[in-house]
Amino acid sequence: MPVPLTREALGHLPAGVEGPRFAPADLSPGILHVGVGNFHRAHMQVYLQRLFDRGLSRDWGVVGAGVRPADAAMRERLCAQDHLFTVVELDPTGLTARVVGAMTGFAPVEPAATIAAMADPRIRIVSLTVTEGGWFVDARTDGFDADHPDIRADAAAPETPRTAFGMILAALRARRTAGHAPFTVLSCDNLPHNGAVARRTVAGLARLQDPAFADWVEAEVAFPNSMVDCITPATTDRERALVADRFGLIDAVPVACEPFRQWVLEDVFPQGRPALEAAGAEFVADVAPYELMKLRILNGGHAAIAYPAALLGHHFVHDAMADPRIAAWLEALTTREIQPTLAPIPGVSYDDYRRLIRDRFANPEVGDTIPRLALDGSNRQPKFILPTIRDALAQGRPVEGLALEVALWCRYCAGTDEAGRTIPPNDESWETLRSRALAAREDPGAFLSQARIFGDLGADPRFAAAFGEKLRSLWSRGVAATLADYVGG
């Protein structure tokens, strides 16, 4: 019979399941992480467990925190399991499972408790995965969105914040008053220059509250850039059943992920850090070239396959990659238009990286879904596709394929696939996107005029002309023929 996952079970885990090589009770907290979702647990916590298993950095245990109802649900499930969970690596040559015990606790999901946990002087890093859309970035200026209602609320009432960033500032004030050093703020989200974005968001909110305090934040708080990578699908009953049937554990919140993970960081941690290089992380002077490679080839590649795959009726990513029309489209777009915008990185082959990404997408064990890749396009397109278009235009390079990617997104937002099936809403701006996408069938500018998404890019004549041509082809000739034209072109 499957065994419920608790600390009591660690002494007799089922055969084939690797457990912590340390007693979780022997860890002490050093990191507070906001947003304890699947990616964080498959990524940072696995790196930390590698260290703890070797007897290293055991004063860097993780305290969970959150601000959303989903965080409270995760806390309830993890607390019931003594903060343990299973990570299954979906290697097509053979699945493996390990129980991760890198957490020391999970703060109650309410502002006062989160602020108190951040203010604990043992916490030297506050890390976050709040998704691409959670950083209050104004797409029109690529700057801080000071007009967002949640930001305005936190600016008006710093003592009772509703955002993670307001809580960070409240905790930094408390630490400063108590004479404790500020923690480092580490973004682990898929954002270009994520440390700089974190600095801009935290300091921008601080400036609305107290300009003098904002000056202190900018001078004293470190915000290192990092690049993170590990494909981690959502947990469903499929993953829970896999852990129970294959590995003999009852786990309410297992994580299934690919066997590949990467973490590249700037070494800017004034209050210290865990010895992550001993667990396979890379520390470099400048993360920007690595993050750009990943954001454009991997995240941009996800966007490139998501919309044609959805329109052609695919549900799983590996099935889409088995479709020669989509595989050829991804290869052509990446080699012709995405890779040429990237500056060389010494010792890195973009061709090898592209082939690695292709193989990762095609892994059938991961079970990643097209609906997940297509999610939240109004926040993801400005991060993973539109900057590539801007660079290509500035460099005088072709943008026909990139314009086709945006046209595929627009066609998807019209709300039906090529078989006439309804596409469920999957974006906070879905109704606006859908109405603009339908209008764009006659007037392509109706979609590109969304300044929140496109800024001034929608008015660029080269891009607008290419977008209009590709969108008309999608409606008149269909996805397969339009992709074939580009691939054969």
From TrEMBL:
Keywords tagged on the record: Oxidoreductase
Top-level taxon of origin: Bacteria
InterPro entries: 6-PGluconate_DH-like_C_sf, 6PGD_dom2, Mannitol_DH, Mannitol_DH/Oxidoreductase, Mannitol_DH_C, Mannitol_DH_N, NAD(P)-bd_dom_sf
Start and end residues of each Mannitol dehydrogenase C-terminal domain: 286-475
EC id: 1.1.1.67
Enzyme class name: oxidoreductase
Pfam families associated with the record: Mannitol_dh, Mannitol_dh_C
Single annotated GO MF: mannitol 2-dehydrogenase activity
Domain Mannitol dehydrogenase N-terminal: 30-277
Record's protein name: Mannitol-1-phosphate/altronate dehydrogenase
Source species: Rubellimicrobium thermophilum DSM 16684
